[in-house]
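Repro:
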Amino acid sequence: MKLSLGISPCPNDTYIFDAMLHGKIDTEGLEFMPRLEDVETLNQLAIEGALDISKVSYGVVFQLLQQYRILEAGSALGKGVGPLFVSKSIAMEREIDCSKIRVALPGINTTAHLLFSLAYPEINNKTFVPFHLIEDMVINGEVDAGVIIHENRFTYQQKGLNKLSDLGDVWEKRTGAPIPLGGILARRSFDLALASKINRVIYRSLAFANDHAEALPSFVTDNAKEMKEEVMRNHISLYVNEFSLALGADGRLAVLELIKASAALNQQNLPEGLSLFLDEN
């Protein structure tokens, strides 16, 4: 059975999905057709219902619950992994003029935007661009500040940028929960047997990667050619953890908390009687 699969080219995703895409594990008769895109493009494709399985921002999941179910394996959650709000011209948070500051964010549907909106509801002058452009926009003065994610967390200080706040810290202090950044969704129309099989394959793929982590596969390095290996490994260690193997009770509670926050921000209620996670009937 062939299934379309959307993931990002970032090291955490290519690390998790390499084995199942390249014949290194038993896929139980499933064949995956990968599409590598930045996460905001994946969010939009999921909104359009274009993919069978996809990595998406947890910030957009509220909009997708009628079409997709959240799988247990493949997620990016954790503490100390949140987006950073940075600037070159502003030294510290108390200097922010919320009525004037221009901010670049990595997509309107991203978890980064949701966390930013919860932390700074009064800031409205926003520009949405692919995440890899944000550092340079801040450095060049095209915007006053930006919200950075992924590998930019490891490089912003070297480029003369100041951290105004850690949006993950704001979330953790508010909820006490880990930050749900991105997760894997499968079509709700799939029966539970198929969804469970997909989940097992993703789990097996990540377990294989962890068992062979001494050498990064070419799928990781070829899609991150501009990164040093140290940055790739830092990226993987930050975003791939026990929650990536299985959300578990704590992970599901954190995701549900974020989905509720997204619903509240959109002044809507969660749909009643709709299972969100794979292990629900």
